[in-house]
Amino acid sequence: MLIKYWPTETKIPFMRYRYVGVVLSVIMMVASVYLVMTRGLNLGVDFAGGSVVELRQTDSVTVADVRDRIPGGLTVNSATDSNGAELVVIRFGEVDASLLGPEFAELTDEEKADRASAASNTFVVNTLKQEFGLTDQDILRNDSVGPKVSGELFREGLIALGVATIMMFLYIAFRYSWSYAVGGIAALIHDAIGTIGLFSLLQIQFDLTTIAALLTIIGYSVNDSVVVFDRIREIRRKYKQMPATEVIDIATNQTLSRTFLTGGTTLIAILAIAIFGGPVLQGMSVAMIWGIIIGTYSSIYFAAAIVLMLGVDINRKPVEDTPGFEAMP
């Protein structure tokens, strides 16, 4: 019913404010880089290594009790799951080697480096069971990743982002021209840096699900930009003497309803994940919500503005008259 209230034809002068949009985007990217350099990222167990153990909080199992009764310098916090239940969340890397028993002390240095993470996890879990009388069913989550594996995961995640970016650049350059490719990739980098900056600002856990969300944002951002680019090219072929600013404004207005309907329906699906997906999917859902918002913005005010600055017709053969439009300006 709401769709019928959407105007059939809009004439918003987007490119009139392109410099404001570009300046805001540059400020956001610089601020994001600054935040990552100063505050860093709250890397999850996937990338930082270590273990996470979750228990249901009860009268006899509280955050304070776990801190007092479990040695090893653990980080213990409270959290709430999707059902509203209070949890005790225990994060730790490698506990003091003296706590791991004589068998661990007899290992070589190389064997200690390989087994320290798993041995620390076993020590903490066994101590929790002994101190609080817990069983395996009482431990809601027990994830452990060694430093070698976490380093490989982080490196492979960055490689995946890099390969995706290069392939997108080649696709757009092949389909359009290098000016469009630069505009599309600039918007893609804009969205990725802005999302990482948000994670640094709010210290949301950055893990493998976040990398998956970033790859999804990259695809969404490029798809949005390509839709606008397609319409720019179509209009340019029809109205070859029309100023480039006007061409981009018409193309953006003609794709506006599609952009908002696609973004709106996608947001509804992601909001459902954010509300009902629980803490495990929280980082991914936040990244995708933010990515959809700035992806829509960047396809209009960043990608199109850069294409306008570089030239919509650059490196292209002269456009041919389209039958029926020869007399058009």
Automatic annotation (TrEMBL):
<comment type="similarity">
    <text>Belongs to the SecD/SecF family. SecF subfamily.</text>
</comment>
<dbReference type="InterPro" id="IPR048634">
    <property type="entry name" value="SecD_SecF_C"/>
</dbReference>
<feature type="domain" description="Protein export membrane protein SecD/SecF C-terminal">
    <location>
        <begin position="134"/>
        <end position="311"/>
    </location>
</feature>
<dbReference type="Pfam" id="PF07549">
    <property type="entry name" value="Sec_GG"/>
</dbReference>
<dbReference type="Pfam" id="PF02355">
    <property type="entry name" value="SecD_SecF_C"/>
</dbReference>
<keyword id="KW-0653">Protein transport</keyword>
<dbReference type="GO" id="GO:0065002">
    <property type="term" value="P:intracellular protein transmembrane transport"/>
</dbReference>
<keyword id="KW-0997">Cell inner membrane</keyword>
<keyword id="KW-0812">Transmembrane</keyword>
<keyword id="KW-1133">Transmembrane helix</keyword>
<dbReference type="GO" id="GO:0005886">
    <property type="term" value="C:plasma membrane"/>
</dbReference>
<comment type="function">
    <text>Part of the Sec protein translocase complex. Interacts with the SecYEG preprotein conducting channel. SecDF uses the proton motive force (PMF) to complete protein translocation after the ATP-dependent function of SecA.</text>
</comment>
<dbReference type="GO" id="GO:0015450">
    <property type="term" value="F:protein-transporting ATPase activity"/>
</dbReference>
<dbReference type="InterPro" id="IPR022813">
    <property type="entry name" value="SecD/SecF_arch_bac"/>
</dbReference>
<feature type="transmembrane region" description="Helical">
    <location>
        <begin position="157"/>
        <end position="174"/>
    </location>
</feature>
<protein>
    <recommendedName>
        <fullName>Protein-export membrane protein SecF</fullName>
    </recommendedName>
</protein>
<feature type="transmembrane region" description="Helical">
    <location>
        <begin position="260"/>
        <end position="281"/>
    </location>
</feature>
<dbReference type="InterPro" id="IPR055344">
    <property type="entry name" value="SecD_SecF_C_bact"/>
</dbReference>
<dbReference type="GO" id="GO:0043952">
    <property type="term" value="P:protein transport by the Sec complex"/>
</dbReference>
<keyword id="KW-0813">Transport</keyword>
<feature type="transmembrane region" description="Helical">
    <location>
        <begin position="208"/>
        <end position="229"/>
    </location>
</feature>
<dbReference type="InterPro" id="IPR005665">
    <property type="entry name" value="SecF_bac"/>
</dbReference>
<keyword id="KW-1003">Cell membrane</keyword>
<keyword id="KW-0811">Translocation</keyword>
<comment type="subunit">
    <text>Forms a complex with SecD. Part of the essential Sec protein translocation apparatus which comprises SecA, SecYEG and auxiliary proteins SecDF-YajC and YidC.</text>
</comment>
<dbReference type="InterPro" id="IPR022645">
    <property type="entry name" value="SecD/SecF_bac"/>
</dbReference>
<keyword id="KW-0472">Membrane</keyword>
<feature type="transmembrane region" description="Helical">
    <location>
        <begin position="287"/>
        <end position="310"/>
    </location>
</feature>
<feature type="transmembrane region" description="Helical">
    <location>
        <begin position="20"/>
        <end position="37"/>
    </location>
</feature>
<dbReference type="InterPro" id="IPR022646">
    <property type="entry name" value="SecD/SecF_CS"/>
</dbReference>
<feature type="transmembrane region" description="Helical">
    <location>
        <begin position="181"/>
        <end position="202"/>
    </location>
</feature>
<dbReference type="GO" id="GO:0006605">
    <property type="term" value="P:protein targeting"/>
</dbReference>
